[in-house]
Fold these 2 entries.
Entry 1:
Amino acid sequence: MDFPKDLKYTKEHEWVRVEGKTVVVGITDYAQDSLGDVVYVELPQEGASVTKHEPFGVVESVKAVSDLYSPVSGSVTEVNDAIIDSPEAINEDPYGDAWMIKVEIAGASELDDLLTADEYQKFIEEEK
Amino acid sequence: MVPFAGWEMPVQYSGVIEEHKAVRSACGLFDVSHMGEIEVSGDSAIDFVQFIMTNDIERIADGQCQYTPLCRADGGVVDDTIVYRFNIDRYLFVVNASNKDKVFGWMLEVQAKEKFPDVTIEDLSASYAQIAIQGPKSIDAMRPLLDIDPDDIRHFHFHIGLLAGEIEAIVSRTGYTGEDGFEVYLDPKDAPALWKVLTDSGMPHGIRPAGLGARDTLRLEMGYPLYGHELADDITPIEAGLGKYVRFSKDFLGKEVLERQSKEGTSKALVGLRMCDAGIPRQGYEVQSGGKTIGQVASGTMSPSLEVGVATAFVKPEFKAAGTSVEVVIRGRAAKAEVARLPFYRK
C-alpha cells in the first residue's frame, strides 16, 4: 500500500496536498482498499464551505455508504467532476486522477494536526 | 472476513463486481457452509412437513427439492427454505444461518402443540458444509468430478453420490444467483478437498471464488428474497410477492391469514425499483410519490450487470404497477425511480 511522503493525512483516511493557500483533498489507498469497488461519489458544489471533521461528501461501494470527512475548514474552489462519472478512478488512482476537491483555507493553522505519512501508516497498523 | 451468525464469512475475494461478473459469464465458487440443515423424519413426517410449509411437498417426487416459506399462524415468515425430499418419511430443510435456532425451536414447538409424536426433528447443521458452484460454466467444472452426467440432475432435483471418486455429497441443481449451478452438501471435513478439486476443475472455465457481497448483488438482480430484507417475522409471503409458493389446496399454518390477504389484498406490496436519477438506494430509505411517503426500501445496491441503482421496496399496493414513477429519498434528496418488473436482470 502506498502513502506518498509529500502528503498529509487524517485519521478519517483522507489525504491533503498543500498548494499554497489551497489544499487538494482525496481518500487514501487504505480507504479505497477497505471500501472495495467504489460505484458512486457525491461531492459538494464549488463555492460551498466545508468544516474540519465534518462530512463534505459520500462514497459508496457496492455494499456500503461512507461519509467523506473534511481535513480542513474553508471554501471549495474546485470539484473533480470527472470522478462522479468514473468513480472507479478512486480505486485505481486515489492520489492522482481521483482527487476530490480543492479547498482554500483561512491559514496554515488548519494543517497543524494533520498526520505525516509515517504517523498515518502507524495509525492504520494499530487500527487493524 | 466479517462475523455473521457465529461464522467468519468472506464478503469478497477479488472484488464484488469482478466476482459477480464471473458468475454471470463463467462460474463462481461460494462457501455457504453457514447455512443450517434440519432433518425431519418419521412415519408422519409428510403430514408435519405439509403443515409447516406453505408450498406443497406432494407436488414433487423423491429426489427433488422445493422452495417454500415457513409461516406462523399469523402468516409471518419464520424463514424461507429449500426442502429436500429424500422419501415420504425423510426431508432436509436448508435454512438461513441467522434463523437456524429459531426455526429449530419453532419446529419442536409446533410438533409438541399439534401432536406429531412420530416425527423426529434433528439439527444437522454441524454435519454439513455447503459449497455452491454457480454460473453458466458450472456444469463443465462439475462434469469430470461427478459420478453421473451432471445433465442428468435436472433443475431442482438432487443426486446423492460421489465427487472426485471419494467425497460423499448431496448435489442439487439449485442456486441463489439466477444462473445454472449446483449446491453441494458434504461432511465438513471433506469441504477443503472439494473446494480444491472444484477450483482446479473450473480453472479452464474461468472459475473464481465468490463471497457474500456478490451473492447478495446476484440474488438482488434476480429479485430473490433475503430474510431480514424482503422477509421477516412481520411480513407475509403474500406481501412479499411469493404467492406462487403458497398452496391453498392443502392445510398449513398461516393459511387463514394468507388466504384472506390473497383474496382481499394487503396493505403493502413488494416491488422492484430502478433508479432514474443518480444514487444508490439502500435498506430503510423512504419511498415517496409526490412528496408523500408510500413505502420503504427493503434491499438496494448498484447492479453490477445493469450499472444502475436497483432496489426492492415495500410500497402501498396502488403504486405497484411497473412503470410507476416514484422517488427514493437519498440523504434528504428525492431521487427519481421507477417501479420495475422483477427480475431486474434477464439474459
Entry 2:
Amino acid sequence: MNKKFIIIVTTAILGFAFAFSVAAQTSAPTTGAGLKDRVKDLRQNIGNIKIQTKTELTDIKIKAKRAELNIQLKATQEAAKKRIEAAREEAKKAVEARRTELKDKISKLRDKKKRQIVTRLDEQMARLNIQWTDHFSNVLNRLSEILGKIELRATKAETSGKDVTAVKTAIQNAKAAIETARTSVETQAKKTYVATFSSETGLGAAFKAVRDQLHKDLFGLRDGAMKSAREAVQNSLQALKSLNF
Amino acid sequence: MNTSKTWVWVIIIIAALALIGWLAWYYGFFSPVATEEGVQQPSVQQPVSDRDTTTDISNDLNSVDIGNPDQDLKQLDADLNQL
C-alpha cells in the first residue's frame, strides 16, 4: 500500500517536473536575461517539490512505523494476558486438593473468631497475588508503550540523518528486559499461598510463614525483574536524549 | 415584597448547598474508600500521552509507579496478630 503510494507520488512529481520544463521551453522568453530568470524559477520550484516529497515520504514512513508498533503492542499485551490467565488456572488446579484440605481444617476450628480470621487471611493472600501480578503486568504494558514512543522518535531521528545505533541497541535491551519481567510475572501468577497446619496452636506460625513467602516473592519480583525493566527503558530514553533531537 | 424575600431565601439555600458540596469534595468525602477487607487495588496512573518529545516521554516514564506491596501485607499482619 505504502509502496504504491510512493510510486504514485514519485510519478506525479516527475510528471510535474516534466510539464514545467516543457512549459518553460514553449513559453519562456528568448532573451538571455529572461531565460536565466526562468531557469532560476524552475530550479527553485523543483527544489521545493523535492523538499515537500521528502517530508511526505518521512510522514508516510512514520505513520507506517506507528501502525506497526501499535499492532505489535496489542498482540504482546493480549498474549501476556492469556499467559497469566493460563498460569492462574494451572495454579488453581494444582492447589485444589490442598485448599479443600485447608477449608476442612478451618471448619473444625473451635474458636469462631479464629475461623473467620484464617478464612479471610487465606482469601486475602490469594487475592493479593492476583492484584499484584495484574498490577505488574499493567506496568509492563505501560513500559512497552513508552518504549514504542522511544522507538518511533528514534525512527524520526534516523530519517533526519541522526546515528541511532546506540538507541536501537538500548531499545533491544529494554525489550528483552520487559520480556524477562513478563516471564517472572507469569511465574509469580503460578504460585499459590496455602497454609498447612496440624493443630490449632500452630495456626499463627503456619499463616505467618505463608505471608512471609508472599512478601519475599512480591518484593523479589518488584526489586528484581520489574525494576530492571524500568531501568532498561530509562536507558533507552537516555540514549535518545543524547541525540539532541 | 414577599416574593422577593422568597427569592433571597432560595438563593441563600442554593449558595449554602453549593458551599457544603464544595467542602465535601475538598475534604475528600467523595473519594473511593478501601475495599471491605482493607486491600486497595494497586493501579497504573493516567494513560500514556500521544506526544513524543523526549520531555513528554520522560514525564510518562516518571509517572510509572512499580508500586509497594508493603501496605497490603501490613493489613494481613493485623489479622495475623489476632491468631
